[in-house]
Amino acid sequence: MILITGVSGFIGSSLAKKFLEQGYSVIGIDNFNSYYSIELKKYRTRIVGEFKEFYFEFADISNHNLLREIFKKYDITSIYHLASEVGVRHSIDHGDRYFTTNFLGTQNIINLVHEFNIKEVHFTSTSTVYEGNAIPFHEDMIIKNKLSNPYSQSKLLAEKEFENFCREQKCNVSVYRLFSVYGEYGRPDMFLFKLVTSLLRNQEITIYGDGNNLRDLTYIDDVIRALSLKKSTSGFQLYNIGAANPISINQLIEMCEKILQRKAKVNYTNHIHQEINQIWASHQKAKDIFSWQPHVPLEVGIQKTIQHIENHLAQDWY
User: Fold this and answer.
1) Nearest 10 degrees: CA dihedral of 308, 314, 315, 318?
2) 151 counts as catalytic
3) What is the residue extent of each domain of the chain?
4) What pLDDT, in 10s, does the model give residues 255-300?
5) Which one of the listed residues 80, 151, 219, 239 is annotated catalytic?
6) Residues in Cβ contact with 284 at an 8 Å cutoff, skipping those fewer than 6 apart
7) CA–CA separation, 162 and 107 (whole Å)
């Protein structure tokens, strides 16, 4: 059985659906964190809950004893650890929560992986750990020990915990540094969703900086394909999962304006120094190791996402 933590999240629910469609049994853990719409998270969970081989457990990964009961209850063969406090800006004023979930929660997962002798683990990290490096980012770059925001720092610490665990135990751990994942049922705090809803509602949108900062938007279906592909590698492995097709914020605004035939009301303000200006993936390693590269063109993914937001705007998720 496959265990997915953070199963009610954007990526977790999409990954669970993929595995269930392939005939796997999936155990999903989530605590319906209130950072963004709980109703959206519950809706995603209902979608995967329609499969008879889906088993949901309400739990917080920072609760070791509760997690251990779940591990005892099921015959878990592989783990996809996606549960996380997310978002750079939100982390600046809520650092303790990020440390508790992203670092201590990951330690709980690692301890139980060891106790229950689970040999295959997958962990989603973030492109923001590349802070201070030149673009495009690749996996063998030197990462600073001290990053400027709690989100990136907590994810980096979690990566290192997995790496140390692999050195001591015979376990295969794949870590995926994800780049600006977007698509249907995505996170409302992501810029694309804020931009589209502001256009549809004729509201102002705030841009931090001059709009020339780059983002490497990667469509959800491509990300799920990367996560679910079988890997023949062993030990600890890092992979960038990004489109390698960066676009500036200003270009993204122009694209969405053209699709929707509306003009954005943009308020430019000071850049937040804890955020990376330029994000650009090299996915050469993923291409070489397990033949992954993105299939969905940016324009197609944006069109699908905008259509989804238009169809669900009345539900107030976004």
Assistant:
1) 60
2) yes
3) 2-182+217-244+281-295
4) 999 999 999 999 999 999 999 999 999 999 999 999 999 999 999 9
5) 151
6) 138
7) 9
